[in-house]
Amino acid sequence: MKNSLKGIYATCLICLMLISCQSSQGQDVAQAQRDRLFKAYMDVKMDIRDENFEGSKAHAIQLEKEVQNFRLKGLQIDDMMRLKKVSQTMKTNAASLKSAEDMKAMKVSFSAVTQSLFTIMETMKCTDEAVYLQYCPMEKGYWLSYDKAIENPYAASMRNCGQLVKGMATADYPEPVACH
Question: Which spans in the chain are helix H?
């Protein structure tokens, strides 16, 4: 009887450890996907800053792919419902970014993607870096930056034009909550 209880206890302990490992692997996979999304976003931003339309098109394809693959996992139900619409908007804007015919249209779509991505970031950690939402009133465009200092990607002649709207450091991200 004692050996039987020990066997059951050991089996339960092993099962709990396996479930815990699978859970953390799922979180790692989700974080890796968010990292790829944010990297693709930053690649497009750099191309826009450099007025590299062809590079922007190539990176916009990757960004749209990452946006399409993006999943709202590990959220509480009310956050998930709220962000579902934002995620759909981001998908639409990423598709517009990919199909933009010129740099002006690309900038408009990029600003829209930025707003959706930052809204999602306020609930889900998308990078380990501090991130700042910035705005250019002349171009009426938003972008994200790792730095508080303004480096406007929308116009080379106005690199310092803009304002810091909001920042998020690692400490600002909410603790992840798993749905069960």
Answer: 2-49, 53-69, 77-98, 103-121
Most confident of 76-80, 91-95, 120-124: 91-95
CA atoms within 13 A on the CB side of 74: 20
For residue 42, is it left (φ>0), alpha (ψ between -120 and 50) or beta?
alpha
Long-range pairs, 134-139, Cβ under 8 A, ≥24: 134/162, 134/163, 134/164, 134/165, 135/162, 135/163, 135/165, 136/161, 136/162, 137/161, 137/162, 137/163, 139/107
Give the number of other CB atoms < 10 A from CB of residue 35: 15
pLDDT tens by residue, 46-66: 999 999 999 888 999 999 999
**In terms of pTM, does the model score above 0.70?**
yes
pLDDT at 28 over 80: no
Which of 99, 83, 94 lies closest to 37, judged by CA? 94
